[in-house]
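For the sake of transparency, this paper describes our internal protein records without simplification. An entry from our holdings is shown next, in its original layout:
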Amino acid sequence: MSAPLPDLPNDPGTAGWFEAELQPHEPALRAYLRRRFPSLADPSDVVQETYARLLKLRQRTAIRCPRALLFTTARNVAVDFLRHQRVLPMQPITDSVDLPVLYEESGGAELIDRQYELEVLADAVRSLPDRCREVMMLRHLENLSYKEIAVRLGISPETVKIHIAKGLRRCTEYFAEHGLAPGEDFR
């Protein structure tokens, strides 16, 4: 079920942008929200709030990667919704009872964010060229020095440095494309 078209500014370019850049991704967005946030009864409120935020942002600045920003914004909105659901139901307050204000579950929203970030990190590393990925894994998982990596792989320490720089640059770009690192891609 597609969400109703949000109230769009009278700018015909905005309506066209919405229909071309955001609305075609709605089925995938809803599937993503149902998979990632099964405790949301209906993702429609999240979808509508996401659209509203992106349309408001588009009035202020150009959006270069609308699909990536759509999914990232929806994730943030869903996390906000889940945080608000944690508030305890209203209970009568008596003079002799101290009631907690919030239901504190250790980092549920943070855990969801962290899991998403780790999945994007794994995808970013998988997207690296083979040798670059191998160098990055040896450096960051096995904590080997540049010299130790060079000896193990039979390459020069300078080549190791080049692969590390290349891997970090590509991972940073990948994160920016997926909304995890602020950068030029969202302006």
